[in-house]
Amino acid sequence: MFHRILLLLLTVTLSCTAVRSQTMYRLIYGLPPEMHPSDAFFVMYDNGSGFVRINGVDGSRSEIQLMEDYATDANGNTDTSMLVYQGISGLNLNDSTPAGLLSFWFKLDLADGMYRPFAVTTPTQSGTPATSNIQSDSLLNTSPLTPVFVKKYFGVKEDFYLSQFGPRTRGGLTIEEQKTKLFLIVVASTHDETIGPAVDLDAQKAIRMFDTVAMSLGIRNNLIIDTVFGEQYSKANVLNAINKLKPAKKDIVVFYYTGHGYTDTTQPKKLYPFMDLRDPRIRPIPGLDHSNLNLEDIYESIKKKGARVNLVIGDCCNDKMNSYARILPPPPRPGRPRSDSILVIENLKALFLPKAPQSFLLAAASKYEKAFTNTRTGSFYTNNLLQTIRTRFYRRSEKVNWQDIMTTAKQLTVFQVAAKKNCPAPGNPEGQCHQTPLQKEN
């Protein structure tokens, strides 16, 4: 396992000029009964979140935030032939009042495996649409956008316009910033077969992500990785990795855990999970008295070391003991064209080199909740969090901060898990699943 991750780490590459991380369409559609045409600028990011700007024929302008999922058929089963981008919040830009929500449907083209725009519906229209009401659609990834076109939807001082046409940063880090070290501790219960492949996937993604951060900032030679998994997986080795940390005030510390977790019912004030650090291969399973650590206690210990940025992440259950994570169907993997995005160095610096110290504690599930996984992308929360961080590398925005990232990752996780009907229980006849990430700062 360790050699496999190192090999992946050595082969990671990143273009600091352009990557493909978003899909953009111009859609002209009509809603019943009048079918008056509305003009929409549709943007979807790789983390499954996005938005649409809509210009109505009556001069109205609105923006709707979107979340991605597969459609479901009449029996509640997943329909992979249709993707739906559901509106979760909306704003009328003319008067700042709430806007009506819409859903944007994309249908699978079997000829090339790509999803194409198919229909737009309102909440009053139930079920999957049978016919299309899109009058025209234009993929905007095939040629560069022009300022004149984008100004039809966005002001010149708005985030999206600046991300396309704003000034590019030429400078990098100062001499002092170049001395910054990034300490990464990854703890993963890779020998536990009850979790499936999710833990391996999570650990690989975490290492790739923060290697990308270090490389993009130009401090990859200052990246220090300590891994605790496989034969080394134990409470003693986790404590040793934390005790070895000697960050300076300008440094970055990231602690990431993926494995089993639980809540201690005798400690109701402990909202964050305990990590189960027992060797999962030992039978009978030993007691937990000397093989657990609380995620919040780790957070407090790391904070005391005084780094500029402290990020502690735990992707594990926060339910009663022996309540194991449930493997759910994976989120969509839509085939859709991507457009180029430019890495914005200020975004990276805002997150990892802020002027004032920042510390954040993130857990995948609230007290008495499970953390869900799938066999393709690993744990839902880890995938959503890391994908959201990545999208912020390439978006010029005043909202590039950890609060925005945590909120978006939480919304994605709640939305994706709630769409699954794999959790039947007393009082929950529909079997809807629930997972609400928990977070705090400073």
Task: Estimate the helix proportion, in percent.
Answer: 10-25%
Distance between the termini: 34 Å
Structural class: alpha+beta
H and E string: HEEEEEEEEHHEHEHEEEEHEEHEEEHHE
CATH architecture of the largest domain: 3-Layer(aba) Sandwich
Mean pLDDT: 87
Description:
The protein is of the alpha+beta class and 442 residues long. The chain has two domains: 23-165; 177-441, Rossmann fold (3-Layer(aba) Sandwich), CATH 3.40.50.1460. The protein has helices spanning 2-11, 147-150, 159-165, 198-217, 235-243, 295-303, 345-352, 380-393, 402-418, and strands at 19-30, 37-45, 49-55, 61-72, 78-92, 103-109, 114-121, 134-139, 182-188, 223-229, 252-258, 261-262, 274-276, 292-294, 309-315, 339-341, 358-363, 373-374, 378-379, 438-441. The strands form four sheets. Strands 1, 2, 3, 4, 5, 6, 7, 8 and 16 form a nine-stranded antiparallel beta sheet that branches. The protein has a six-stranded mixed beta sheet with strand order 10-9-11-15-17-20, sandwiched between helices. A three-stranded antiparallel beta sheet has the order 12-13-14. Helix 8 crosses helix 9. The longest helix is centred in the middle third of the chain and has 20 residues, at 198-217. The chain is globular.
